[in-house]
Automatic annotation (TrEMBL):
Keyword Oxidoreductase in annotation: no
Topological category with respect to the lipid bilayer: Multi-pass membrane protein
Signal peptide: none
GO cellular component: membrane
InterPro entries: AA-Vitamin_Transporters, EamA_dom, EmrE-like
Main localization, broad class: membrane
Species: Pseudomonas marvdashtae
Family according to the record: Belongs to the EamA transporter family.
Domain of life per record: Bacteria
Subcellular compartments: Membrane
TM helices/strands, residue ranges: 15-32, 52-71, 83-103, 109-129, 136-157, 163-182, 194-212, 224-246, 258-275, 281-300
Protein name, per record: DMT family transporter
Residue ranges that the Swiss-Prot or TrEMBL entry lists as coiled coil: none
Length: 314
């Protein structure tokens, strides 16, 4: 990704390459899980997509002064491709999850569908790109998913949503998986810097959310402290933190590894909920987290072996 031909500033790669990858991944899990907490908090104050729309607006306004100069130098073809990635990663993923919940899909079940990302990513890579994963990686992904199911089983329930609505979170997950593979295989000449990328993704996704939410009601912000806090929380932690760290980690590791790390987001989300909303914890949650950690370790171990083999072959 980071070749001399990439459309990034020369200083950008050196900064985040100095940070140990496990530290970036730990920050990713914390920031990514904050999105579910933000959704849990905001549901009492506004429609979910209204908060998502305004969080995109806020990030777009904040980042614009910092990226306007870089955006002028990026070729239109690169902007167009990165906008497409953003539509899949942000608009497709968030709309699928939030609209499914809005139609009656239980939040716990929607979150579990979203947590199928590593499996969906592996299946897409195998089916579309013809990539082959080692049996140890498949086993690690399966063990990680088992841990997620164990830890979240208390929050799982079958709601009264229309049957087709249960497909929305799955489509959202597959949308993010497709965006991940597209971003990972984007030519270096089409890659842009992190901040321009986030700005572009929020800009185009905000337009989609405006169309969806505008068709259902007003786009006007709600004059309440809860609404403002919801937008600020999700814009800062979930968008700039979560998506920013996701793309950074993707430049440093395989897509399968980065996605598998997100298996730890459900138990971390539950810790957030315990601290903020006094929701109960259980030993089953701890067991699920431990099982997921074993699965992630298996994926990381196989990746490390692959790097050593590639180095030895040279």
């Amino acid at each position: 990704m980071n070749s001399p031909k990439s459309i990034t500033s020369p200083a950008t790669p050196s900064l985040y390459w100095l940070i140990p990858l496990p530290l970036l991944e730990a920050a990713l899990v914390l920031a990514w899980s904050s999105g579910f907490v933000g959704a849990r908090f905001s549901i009492d104050y506004a429609p979910p997509l209204l908060v998502v729309f305004w969080r995109c607006v806020l990030v777009t306004l904040i980042l614009f002064p910092f990226v306007v100069g870089q955006l002028r130098r990026i070729p239109f073809a690169a902007l167009l491709k990165n906008a497409g990635i953003g539509l899949l990663a942000m608009a497709g993923y968030l709309a699928g999850i939030t609209q499914g919940i809005a139609l009656g899909v239980p939040a716990g079940l929607a979150a579990l569908f979203a947590d199928l990302l590593p499996i969906g990513l592996a299946l897409l890579a195998a089916g579309v790109l013809g990539q082959r994963l080692a049996p140890a990686v498949w086993a690690g992904l399966a063990i990680g998913l088992t841990g997620v199911a164990l830890g979240t089983q208390g929050a799982l329930a079958w709601g009264d949503a229309p049957l087709w609505a249960y497909g929305l979170p799955l489509l959202g997950m597959l949308s993010l998986a497709a965006a991940t593979l597209w971003q990972k295989h984007l030519p270096a000449s089409q890659s842009i810097g992190l901040l321009p990328n986030l700005w572009l993704q929020c800009c185009v996704s905000g337009l989609v959310f405006a169309l969806i939410e505008g068709a259902q009601g007003s786009l006007a912000p709600i004059p309440s402290t809860g609404f403002v806090l919801s937008v600020v929380w999700t814009a800062g932690l979930s968008t700039m933190g979560g998506y920013g760290l996701y793309w950074l980690c993707l430049r440093r590791a395989t897509a399968t590894r980065v996605a598998s790390v997100l298996y730890l987001s459900p138990p971390i989300t539950m810790l957030w909920a315990w601290a903020m909303f006094d929701e109960p914890l259980s030993w089953l949650m701890a067991l699920g987290m431990a099982v997921s950690a074993v699965g992630i370790w298996m994926v990381m171990r196989d990746e490390a072996r692959g790097r050593l083999s590639a180095t030895a072959a040279r």
